[in-house]
Amino acid sequence: MDAFSDLFRGMRAQGSLFGSSALSPPWALHFVDGAPLTLCTVLGGAGWIVPEHRPPEQLRAGETVIVRGPEPFTFVDEVGTRAEPIACGEHCATPEQGGTRHRLGWNDSCGDSGDGATTLIVGAYPVRGEISRRLLDALPVVLRVASGGGADAVLDHLAAEVAADTPGQQVVLDRLLDWLLVCALRDYFDRPGGGSPAWYTAQRDSVVGDALRLLHAEPAAPWTVSSLADRAGVSRSTLAKRFADLVGEPPLTYLTRWRMTLAADLLAEREAATVAEVAHAVGYSDAFAFSAAFKRTRGVSPSEFRRTGTVVPEPAGPPP
Fold first, then answer.
1. Which end of the chain is less enclosed by CB atoms within 10 A, N or C?
2. pLDDT, tens digit (0-9, with 9 covering 90-100), for 147-191
3. What pTM does this model have?
4. 3-class state of residue 66 by DSSP
5. Of 133, 166, 169, which is closest to residue 268 (Cα–Cα)?
6. From edge to edge, which strands make up the β-sheet containing 17-23?
């Protein structure tokens, strides 16, 4: 289990909102749901993503934009369009004139697909839990992925399925959205000079990558720097230095923060589990030691987190 894959454990589309529409200018779709992540892909034509308090981003055929919520954004035919914005969301009604319909697994087959039309597919992506939040924190508000990368392989499947009305369509759409999201983020993080998060780029190192995979595969194991170095096949000093240089923090500090992230989701999801049981699940035999580590890392005790579902923001530091 690599760090990138592990962060997707809490990010699975389920009943995701999909809309497909052929739009003829002028048009302006205002996405108001405040979804944690929204994917916009243009299959044909072009348009502009206009986030609140951010510069517009042009979107051409085959390109994908991922917008991180909760702020709303608008998709328009051109910046400064004369079109009246149409509010789009899960419960969006069918506009009477010049607009688009927008609901689960829906294709606007009545739209004008002639010259100048833009074919848009939108997927609103639900994100839950502290694990997923660590990935969101590594993303900009607007993430643009050009065509020509790994995400291209998904688009033909997505275009065909979103236009269909067949049994099991929602399941297929959800899994296609998972696939598109992973490919788009990987293309974005792999771009030259991309400023990817440290945990992502460090995975390519032969030593630190092995150590990260071990920590994510066996987070509850009684790791020490020495035992981790032995499994990675290097000296203790080599691992400690390379890990700190590439990830930005020592191996056991990284492990503690990851364990507390796992624990936060367990506390929220398993209401019947005791704090001691959660502690054991993430590698602590002593509930008091776990509670102290959780409060030091997350800002509140496990019991308080479970009761309120909130944490004190972590101090600025290396990307998780």
1. N
2. 877 778 888 887 777 777 788 877 887 788 888 888 888 888 888
3. 0.77
4. strand
5. 133
6. 106-107, 17-23, 118-125, 37-44, 64-68, 142-145
